[in-house]
Amino acid sequence: MNFLEPSTVLDLQNIRDELVKMEDTIIFDFIERSHFARCSGVYQANNAEVDIPNFDGSFLDWSLMQIEIVHSQLRRFESPDQTPFFPNHILKPILPSINYPKVLASYDAEINYNTKIKNLYIDHIVPMIAKRSGEQKEQMGSVTMIDIETLQNLSRRIHFGKFVAEAKYQSNKELYKKLILEKDVNGIMENITNSQVEEKILERLRVKAQVYGVDPTNKEGERKITPEYLVRIYRDFVIPMTKEVEVEYLLRRLEDEK
Amino acid sequence: MNFLEPSTVLDLQNIRDELVKMEDTIIFDFIERSHFARCSGVYQANNAEVDIPNFDGSFLDWSLMQIEIVHSQLRRFESPDQTPFFPNHILKPILPSINYPKVLASYDAEINYNTKIKNLYIDHIVPMIAKRSGEQKEQMGSVTMIDIETLQNLSRRIHFGKFVAEAKYQSNKELYKKLILEKDVNGIMENITNSQVEEKILERLRVKAQVYGVDPTNKEGERKITPEYLVRIYRDFVIPMTKEVEVEYLLRRLEDEK
User: Fold this and answer.
1) Residues of chain B by 3-state class (helix, strand, coil), percent to 5
2) Do A211 and B208 touch (CB under 8 A)?
3) Where is the Chorismate mutase domain (chains A, B) (predicted)?
4) Which residues neighbour A192 within 8 Å (Cβ) at sequence distance 6 or greater?
5) Does the distance separating the beta carbons of A32 and B140 come in below 8 Å?
């Protein structure tokens, strides 16, 4: 079964199953990134060591933009669960368009947290998962490729808040309409928060970090990701930002009810 | 520690450690691919549904070429452990060149098994890991992106035979020179084969498929990769093709001894 099946895409259980699958992908990305040093040169705008003509950003920015240009032609950003970092640079797909029914509100593409996600990743997540500080200049390309993967997967996870929000809105329109009309941000936040579900996510992440973080045939070997860091990344960044997306999405939801 | 450290890159233990790390990467790729159907349209040359102007190959070929063009600018193919699928289309890096000492023989780039690896992947590996047959046309882009990752990682694994071969050659030049002069392919194959090491690899893969293939917090859940298939892929394809690379590399090794 595929998450984007239109008939079940707003089924909350289906959304949660997909979020569970994404945990594995993100953990695998963190493990790949953990093999390299921090490499801050990758993230530095106008780094003199990188000669990019007519470009103002970092090496990561340039590379991510190139990859998005390719992926856009593979139809990546027609999918409602994908959000580009460089929406003004992507191209038209070479594949025929998908006739996918509109399941999210008309303004969904305007909710784009990618710049925030990128800054968060660079400033807080990389220092936790990259074991060593320092540059490893000859690894800049490899680091950038893994960073792109990881950012795309974090972006998908966090913007999934839109599906969660739409499902919750559909399941209790009366309540949310009232909260939205009153611009009651706290009330919305309270209603979208399910502490039990969040605690379960963190508990599952602890187990997954234990299991995936070490070679199962050599348990005395190097630990690639610690449960503490993984839980911290989700508790302090991924979960709160997903909820921010949900609140922003819901606050505008009545625009589509005319 | 990074594999490509010039002083240890031909240390056989170091090479084996890197091969172990790659197993995880390849298993994670297989797991990602397992979520999708077979999608043979991705692999079909001149598929009428894909409108690629002036291009004769499959959708996968076109996409892989675009990605390689981006990656080449990130210096991917300057690294001796990377082998392009489209060597005639890649571009110059925008990063300064790495001053990496030549550790492999001068002809190493001429040993390129990528077409063979791609065919093998499409014909034998995808049918084993993609759970369902069928097309899932709306997923062609996602499938292609995962295929590219997987192919690049399989290619790195198999072409690692060059490092293995060079290390073995260095450790017993007398023996290999004699075998090479006699064009004794069987003798070379016998000397590079370490059945004990191969059995250990397969044993480790069985355990990894058990552990990584199922959600550790829901062991009754769906199994994403079976030990049987993973072992078969390595035993029948990955290991023999790595050895083919080793033999081809060694047979030409005296070209560099003049």
Assistant:
1) 65, 0, 35
2) no
3) 142-246
4) A164, A165, A168, A243, A246, A247, A250
5) no
Residue A168 is a catalytic residue:
yes
- Rg (chain B; Cα; Å): 19
Say which residues have a Cβ less than 8 Å from residue B46's Cβ, sequence separation at least 6.
B56
How many other CB atoms are there within 10 angstroms of residue A90's CB atom? 18
| The domain defined by A6-257 carries CATH number 2.60.120.230 | no
B11 touches B167 (CB < 8 A): yes
- Residue numbers of B between 26 and 45 with CB closer than 8 Å to A: 28, 31-32, 35-36
The residue behind tokens 């893994």 is: A146
Which of A21, A136, A211 shows the shortest C-beta gap to B2? A136
* pLDDT one-digit tens code per residue, B55-112: 889 999 999 999 999 999 999 999 999 999 999 999 999 888 888 889 999 999 999 9
pLDDT in tens, A148-174: 999 999 999 999 999 999 999 999 999
A32 contacts on B by Cβ (under 8 Å): 25
Q: Which residues of A touch B36 (CB under 8 A)?
A: 2
Which of B:74-93 have CB within 8 Å of A?
Answer: 74-76, 79, 93
- Does this model's pTM top 0.80? My answer is yes
pLDDT tens digits, one per residue of B15-40: 999 999 999 999 999 999 998 999 99
B204 counts as catalytic: no
Q: For residue A168, report the phi and psi dihedrals to the nearest 5 degrees.
A: -70, -40
Using CB atoms and an 8 Å cut-off, which of residues 220-239 of chain B contact chain A?
none
- The position carrying tokens 């590379």 is A63
Chain A residues with CB under 8 Å of B66 CB are: 70, 73
**C-alpha pair distances (Å), B167 with each of B14, B100, B161:** 11, 17, 10
